[in-house]
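Aim 2 progress update. The chain analyzed this quarter is reproduced below.
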Amino acid sequence: MERNDFTDQLFDAILTLKTREECYAFFSDACTPKEIGAIAQRFVVAKMLNDKKVYNEIIDKTGASTATISRVSRSINEGFQLAFERLK
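Predicted structure tokens:
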């Protein structure tokens, strides 16, 4: 991902959010319901992959395609890992 002033401003704004309700309000303004759903689905797919779940189980639970699961699998790096650790 390219780091630039626009992205910095967005992330700085996200870092000010303190509650789930504030996140719902912010992301409802920033994204379509479909975009939010896609990000949420990818996060759950990443968590399930991290938990060593198999593709069929992930498909059954999330409805994600095998292409999405494969794409997410390739992108699990320190960002997702940090979030998983902090959510424990």
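The chain has a mean pLDDT of 96. The chain is about 75% helix and 0% strand. These observations will guide the mutagenesis experiments scheduled for the next reporting period.
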